[in-house]
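// run 5 | inverse folding | seed 20
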């Protein structure tokens, strides 16, 4: 998930252009493509991330884009920078997911080995 102000920075446009694109094309952003933060969520984000203090002064509620939302936004903006940035972001997210999966597989293997060892120890005590 990437907040609209960061998407605007990455795509080389103003945040209001992002908001306008979403507003003018609601059919391209079904549920799960964008999450609009409510006031409480906005305050929580600002509280937890120092670099997002400027969100306090934004009149529009911040939007958080998923991978699908970023892709759709790039098709609306149609700038070469938006398209290339979306491709790079999607590749980075894919690499991250693969990394997390590898780590999880390694952790599962380690837990299985520990469980096997505990079973052996319990059998020896019987």
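// decoded
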């Amino acid at each position: 998930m990437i907040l609209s102000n960061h998407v605007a920075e990455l795509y080389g446009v103003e945040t209001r252009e992002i908001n306008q694109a979403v507003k003018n094309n609601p059919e391209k952003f079904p549920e799960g493509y964008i999450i609009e933060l409510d006031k409480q969520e906005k305050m929580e984000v600002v509280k937890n991330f120092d670099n997002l203090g400027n969100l306090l002064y934004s009149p529009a509620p911040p939007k958080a884009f998923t991978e699908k939302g970023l892709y759709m936004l790039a098709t609306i903006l149609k700038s070469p920078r938006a398209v290339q940035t979306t491709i790079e972001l999607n590749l980075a997210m894919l690499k991250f997911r693969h990394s997390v999966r590898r780590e999880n597989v390694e952790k599962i293997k380690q837990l299985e080995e520990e469980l096997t060892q505990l079973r052996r120890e319990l059998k020896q005590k019987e």
